[in-house]
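quick one, 174 residues, struct below
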Amino acid sequence: MLQLTTYRNLQVFLVIMAVIGMSFALFFLQRYMGFSPCPLCIFQRIGLMVMGGFALIAALFNPKSMVVRLLLWLGSLAGIGWAAAVAGRHVWLQHLPANQVPSCGPGLDYWLDTLPMQQVLTEVFAGSGECASIEWTFLGLSIPEQSLILFSILILAHLLILWRIVRPVPNRHA
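---
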């Protein structure tokens, strides 16, 4: 069991999970089901990609320095922490009473073209009617709820990686 939880293997796990998550969103939800991602969904994907990018660097180069490992871990954690926070906000919006759901506004492309980035973030996190709609469920869970579960699992994996950074496996080939 310890061999499966080496620093490098855990980083590979994060990369695989990022690829699976992005593939599911792009190929199944977007291409097959025909759903367009709302602004909050896009921000969740960005966080997952950031996590996957840092994990890929860590898996490929397998740095020996604790400082480098911690920096890569922090970047990866920031990405998945961002995704989890956005997913949490998305779930909250979906559970608002119908009369409290914000109205639909212009799309993210319009906001990015016309507003400063700080206001874009404010508008996105305020949410819109499209973010509150539930278009598809699996096992009774909406897409943001499924995402939040995945992101929570990945945060737990980050805690295990931190443990591996501060208490490495005695094997030199980790």
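Residues 66-94 form the longest helix (29 residues).
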